[in-house]
Amino acid sequence: MKLTLRVWRQSGPDDDGRLVDYPVDDASPDMSFLELLDVLNQHLIEDGAEPIAFDHDCREGICGSCGVVINGRAHGPERTTTCQLHLRSFRDGDVLDVEPWRAKGFPVIKDLVVDRSAFDRIIEAGGYVTAPTGSAPEAHATPVPKPDADLAFDNATCIGCGACVAACPNGSAMLFTSAKVAHLNSLPQGQPERAQRVLDMVETMDSADFGGCTNTGECVASCPKGIPLTSIANLNREFLKASRSRR
Q1: Is residue 126 within 8 Å of residue 200, measured between CB atoms?
Q2: How far apart are CA 166 and CA 8, in angstroms?
Q3: What ranges make up the beta strands (E) of the chain?
Q4: Distance, CA of 52 to CA of 45 (rounded, Å)
Q5: CB 164 within 8 A of CB 155
Q6: pLDDT at 60 over 70
Q7: pLDDT, tens digit (0-9, with 9 covering 90-100), for 71-101
Q8: Residue closest to 83 by CA, chosen among 98, 62, 99
Q9: Beta strand residue intervals within 46-195, DSSP E
Q10: pTM of the model
């Protein structure tokens, strides 16, 4: 399988970047996209060239480390993570533009690597429960209504990859923040800090250079874990309620 990758190369945050063409003639349809980058990097190293920098870790679609824009789509043409995207999703001879996440809140560090520490700061602002819970309780010690448990679990599946931000025309982080708020605010353990959590996390999100949400829905379409648009509506309700209670 032959492919041509037009990869974004940028030496550092303050340098100008550009797309560079790289032909790959020995790709297999069964490779993941990150394996394709590995093969390309091996060729570059053998030729004495600088390998392409890209983020990766578990390569199982659960850690959120990987993420590139492929032909204008976050994570590529399938609704999955870049590490779980296989080359059978493309055709022999395709030309693929490979770029980093494009958002003001995710400045480029090098090549395809971006600084996603803004997500960490949002979590630090309120994505936790401080109430002492002791050791792991018995499973049925704290009754949780099934709708609440389902809502918390659905939002807890967010892996923080940043595809929602990259896909949003405004570079908004609303889907990520709403998932983290809904996860904890739906559970009994999250109730004592419910109002302060949403206020602090939204304030941190707004200060991190992310754009505003206009409900275009591109975030949901690109989310590999299927976080729903209703999570954003829930965040808006939580924020309004918390803002009124603070007055």
Answers
A1: yes
A2: 15
A3: 3-9, 18-24, 69-70, 73-74, 95-99, 108-110, 113-114
A4: 10
A5: no
A6: yes
A7: 999 999 999 999 999 999 999 999 999 999 9
A8: 62
A9: 69-70, 73-74, 95-99, 108-110, 113-114
A10: 0.93
